[in-house]
Amino acid sequence: MKQARFFRIPSGVIVGCNASSFAGREAKKLGGTKALIVTDRNLTEMGFLSGIESSLDSEKIDHEVFDEVTAEPTLDYVEKGLDLYRRSKCDFIIALGGGSPIDTAKAVCIMASNPGVIQDYKGLDKVSSPGAPLIAIPTTAGTGSETTIFTIITDTRTNVKMLIGSPFILPSVALVDPLLTASSPPSVTAATGVDALTHAIEAYVSVKAQPMSDVFALSAIKFLSENLRQAWANGDNLEARSLTMLGAFQAGVAFSNSSVALVHGMSRPIGAYFHAPHGLSNAVLLAPVVEFSISGNPKRYADIARAMGEKVEGLGVMEGASKASKAVRELVRDIKIPALATLGVTREKLKTVVGKMADDAIASGSPGNNPRKATKEEIVELYWKTFNQDL
Ligand SMILES: [Fe+2]
Predict the structure, then answer these.
(1) Is the pLDDT of residue 42 over 80?
(2) Average per-residue pLDDT in the chain?
(3) How far is the CA of 151 from the centre of ligand 1 (A)?
(4) Which of 5, 214, 249, 320 is the most exposed place for a label (fewest CB within 10 A)?
(5) What region does 163 belong to: left with phi over 0, alpha with psi -120 to 50, or beta?
């Protein structure tokens, strides 16, 4: 290795059924005396908090609940959460939920010990002091936010999604409990699962890939492609749920340390202009972008095909690599990812905004990590290819 690289992962990781019941014990090890639990009201109403609350009670750790995070994280949630954290004299945070509560909690943690406002920390490596300790407990198998150094907060006043990246954002502990995903409906399992697969594939082909993240990326690709269909078709299949969630966690580890690429660069504008969910936007883009990108690093795409269960032995490297897009397309079809047209994207509106979407994708920086660089014209063409594809 010519260049030294950082590799970061939470210092405590517990994976498996009932991992969330370790919240109290892990909080005690962190020296916490009063938690702010940041979550989503649907989860409190469904009783998801009770196990965590009783594990805190058994360690005599007090807590306060902020359960207003019901949509994508905004400045408003961060301000309200921080206010409650300070007023209640909490000294650590537990995030419970999908990406939104975890991302909100990360921002509150940072603001608990840094001056100014969260907007001051937009970009990479702007945070100067460690935040409050964070225990992250995901309830979807997808975002990987429980193990990443990133948070995305929407500034509703300017409508800008601010990416904030810093090692100080990394949760102290991740409790990865597949039992918490058991009630996810098939559509959520599909969208979040393909988001995770996209994290793993992009981490592996990224120009910033490194040997430490490669291990996690390939393992994630294997677990996700072997188990996502089953987790989608039969939510009660705990083995498939467990391995899908493990794959999503490993994919988070991989992309947090080597970054995402063209798919994520292109999916954010679909979310911004058409309000399509993040996971679904990635899912529809994945096969066309893999097809486009293969020539940039065919050896790596052949590895992905192999990890997805394709037979590549005896094939030339380009032929083996092409099996990666075939495997992705089949998976996306099998778990019934809806086409862009059914996500509210119309031909007429796409025509008017596609140029701006391509500009925004390039400006995000993620396409710069892709193994094959895409021009603006090529990105426009990829949006149309994605829109017109049969799923
Ligand atoms: Fe993602």
Answers:
(1) yes
(2) 95
(3) 11
(4) 5
(5) beta
Token code pair at residue 327: 């495997």
Q: Would strands 173-176 and 123-124 be described as parallel, antiparallel, or unpaired?
A: unpaired
SS3 156: coil
- As a residue count, the chain comes to 391
Q: CB under 8 Å to 242, separation ≥6 — which residues?
A: 16, 17, 178
Tell me the CA–centroid distance for residue 143 and ligand 1, in Å.
6
Under DSSP, the state recorded for 119 is G
Q: Ligand 1 being an ion, which residues bring their Cβ within 5 A of it?
A: 195
CA of residue 22 to ligand 1 center, whole Å: 27
Dihedral over Cα of 242, 247, 250, 252: its sign? negative
Structural domains of the chain sorted by starting position, each given as residue range(s) with its CATH number in brackets = 12-181 (3.40.50.1970), 186-388 (1.20.1090.10)
Among candidates 49, 269, 44, 4, which has minimal Cα distance to 161? 269
Query: How far, in Å, from the CA of 62 to the mean position of ligand 1?
Result: 34
pLDDT attached to residue 275 = 85
